[in-house]
């Protein structure tokens, strides 16, 4: 299965703005299959753990506060070349730099509040999936 799965989150502002369904529709229209999905509210501690790789970045405090500000929807996705194709579908981190038609161009509010997460490698897709779904073998 390695190479065929990625992990995404619909981030708090997109959930709060009732964009979860529209974003999931774009994802399915692009050929991704939903393997597992749940809605939950991260604590600051859990958000900090998820983004630990960014702990030295200047925006880390803002990122943790934002990601714990409301519920998110965590999703494991399946498709050939899932990681790379999903990064293309969501567009650049900063929506002002994102291609037309990408999820971030359509739904993001800012570079920080950018609607969705997307794993950046097969290895991180597996790590991030198991962060939210401890019982992965059943999917
Ligand atoms: P990515 O989500 O496109 O992979 P990363 O560089 O991994 O981007 O950053 C993780 C998340 O941190 C971004 O999605 C965004 O929410 C937030 N972030 C990144 N850069 C900035 C910034 O310069 N200011 C505020 N938040 C940022
Ligand atoms: Mg990243």
Describe the structure.
With 139 residues, the protein is α+β, with helices and mostly antiparallel strands. It is 40% helix and 17% strand. It has one domain (5-43, 72-134): Alpha-Beta Plaits (2-Layer Sandwich), CATH 3.30.70. The chain has a four-stranded antiparallel β-sheet with strand order 2-3-1-4. Helix 3 (44-50) crosses helix 4. Bound molecules: inosine-5'-diphosphate and magnesium ion. The site of inosine-5'-diphosphate (IDP) has 10 residues, from helix 4. Residues 54, 59, 62-63, 93, 111-112, 114, 117, 120 line the site of inosine-5'-diphosphate.
Query: Separation of termini?
Result: 11 Å
> Helicity range of the residues?
25-40%
Strand order of the largest sheet: 2-3-1-4
Main sheet: strands, sense, barrel:
4 strands, antiparallel
Please name the CATH topology: Alpha-Beta Plaits
Output the structural class: alpha+beta
- State mean pLDDT (0 to 100 scale): 96
Ligand inventory reads:
inosine-5'-diphosphate, magnesium ion
Oligomer: single chain
CATH superfamily, by name, is: Nucleoside diphosphate kinase-like domain
Number of contiguous helices? 7
* CATH class call: Alpha Beta
Content of β-strand: 15-25%
**Could you name the ranges where pLDDT drops below 50 across 5 or more consecutive residues?**
none
SSE layout and pairing:
Elements: E1 5-10, H1 12-16, H2 20-29, E2 33-40, H3 44-50, H4 60-67, E3 72-78, H5 82-90, H6 103-107, E4 116-118, H7 122-132
Antiparallel strand pairs: 1-3, 1-4, 2-3
Helix pairs in contact: 3-4
The structure holds inosine-5'-diphosphate (IDP) and magnesium ion.
């Amino acid at each position: 299965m390695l190479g065929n799965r990625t992990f995404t989150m619909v981030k708090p502002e997109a959930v709060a703005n009732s964009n979860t369904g529209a974003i999931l529709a774009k994802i399915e229209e692009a050929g991704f299959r939903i393997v597992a999905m749940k809605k939950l509210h991260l604590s600051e501690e859990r958000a900090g753990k998820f983004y630990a790789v960014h702990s030295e970045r200047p925006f880390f405090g803002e990122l943790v506060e934002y990601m714990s500000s409301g519920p998110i929807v965590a999703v494991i996705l399946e498709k050939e070349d899932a990681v790379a194709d999903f990064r293309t579908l969501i567009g650049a981190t900063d929506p002002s730099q994102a291609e037309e038609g990408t999820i971030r161009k359509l739904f993001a509010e800012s570079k920080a509040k950018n609607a969705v997460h997307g794993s950046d490698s097969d290895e991180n897709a597996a790590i991030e999936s198991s962060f939210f779904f401890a019982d992965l073998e059943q999917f």
